[in-house]
Amino acid sequence: MKVVVDMDVCQDHGQCVFASPEVFRLSDEGRLLYVAEPDESLREDVEDAADVCPLQAITIED
Amino acid sequence: MSTMDRIVVAGASLGGLRTAEQLRRAKFAGEIVVVGDEPHMPYNRPPLSKEVLAGKAGFDSVAFRPKAAAGDVVWRLGSAVASADLAGRTLTLADGESLSYDGLVVATGLRPRRLDVPGPVGGRHTVRTLDDARALQGALRPGARVVVVGAGFIGCEVAATARGLGAEVTVVEPTPLPLVRALGEVLARALLERHRAQGVRFALGRTVSRFTGTDERVTGLVLDDESRVRADVVVEAVGSLPNVEWLEGNGLDLSDGLLCDEQLRAVGAPGGVVGVGDVARFPNARYDAVARRVEHWSVPGDSAKHAARTLVGAEQEAFAPLPSFWSDQYEYRVQSFGAPGLGAGDVRVLEGDPAGDVLVGYHDGGGRLVGVVALGGAAVVARAAAYRGELSSISAGSAGSAGSAGSSDFSVMQGALS
Prior knowledge:
The complex is a heterodimer of chains A (62) and B (418).
Chain A: E1 2-5, H1 15-19, E2 24-26, E3 32-34, H2 43-52, E4 58-61
Antiparallel strand pairs in A: 1-4, 2-3
Chain B: E1 6-10, H1 14-25, E2 31-36, H2 59-62, E3 74-77, E4 81-85, E5 90-93, E6 98-100, E7 103-106, E8 110-112, E9 124-125, H3 130-137, E10 145-149, H4 153-164, E11 168-173, H5 180-183, H6 185-197, E12 201-204, E13 208-213, E14 218-223, E15 228-230, E16 233-236, E17 240-242, E18 258-259, E19 273-275, E20 280-283, E21 291-293, H7 298-311, E22 324-329, E23 332-338, E24 347-352, E25 358-363, E26 369-376, H8 378-386, H9 388-392
Parallel strand pairs in B: 1-2, 1-7, 2-3, 7-19, 9-16, 10-11, 10-16, 11-12, 18-20
Antiparallel strand pairs in B: 4-5, 5-6, 8-17, 13-14, 14-15, 20-21, 22-23, 23-26, 24-25, 25-26
Helix pairs in contact in B: 1-7
């Protein structure tokens, strides 16, 4: 599974961090960091993370 | 539930889309039909009062991308549901078509409340749909006199966007401070100062008595103290009404949206009817047994997931989402986690200063933190998120006195502040 976050669109809401903490986190400055190729077992969490993004900036490329 | 062949989703916005997707995730293999009154596929509404209104975002940038698993969903767009016969499991659409179902998702959302005062109608706008935002965008020219009625989240965001476009903006609000019902006095004052610093004028503690103008167009407002405000454009941001009229005659409680139980089942309905999104009035087991409608962006997604599992008969705990909302105004963000309204009686600045970046905590009668709201930039918003774990630990049965407040609002005394 490949995760792409459009960082031009991301506004650091951090909702993805709660849905999928293994893949997404916020730095101390509040900026988003993420794992680009997470394990397949995390798919449902990553789908939830994409759903809860207020900017819809997260795409899962199979 | 094994005899369920067709689920109809009434409402084709975020809640309807997410319910369709979650039904597929929950292994529902029957037909899914989504009915919506707007002609558009589901799109994201928060940008309507900001980027779309500023002319910076078109439909493509706000349209949701439905998941591949929901690729076989049937979309019946451009036709509202006119009525429902729940006993007969049949809907009638506005275009006269009749649609039978085995499961029904009520996700028909809200429409803007309108001001019921005399005067011309032309030039008065609301911001709920893409078409609304496009119509208003064309009127927000530099120098245009824009009057926003209502200083809630939509009103404040529209005011900020209109200022950014160079319009002259006046906000009329019946309470003494903008957003005081949602945020309490400390942050309401901080936001008022930020808007004033940007040149927005306020008529606080005032209501609209009538509109003035020609037969076709509004050119001004008369307020309840007989003061007059000139206007080229009026934006009415005075709250919303749930779209439930189509459900009347079925013995449901529709007094403020559709009353649902802790599994989002419609109370008083035959089996197989659930409520999703801001039309649903539901108890949040995290706090208490009081059913409330919640107009946060997170609610359609959270409730869709729960309601889809209810419809397919999955065992699950009572619905207990952690509330969360945000608002972007100028370069500032308001970010909330938890239930600030349940902690209205004990509000403390946790970090920072209301004049700059600030984090405010809301506590119940026992002094326990039940909500936080940050105002400012990314760093303080991230600090608010750091409290999310603590706020999540409030679970069903542990809410203590939080619910005894019996209100999700800050009490606002007219004229007590100035």
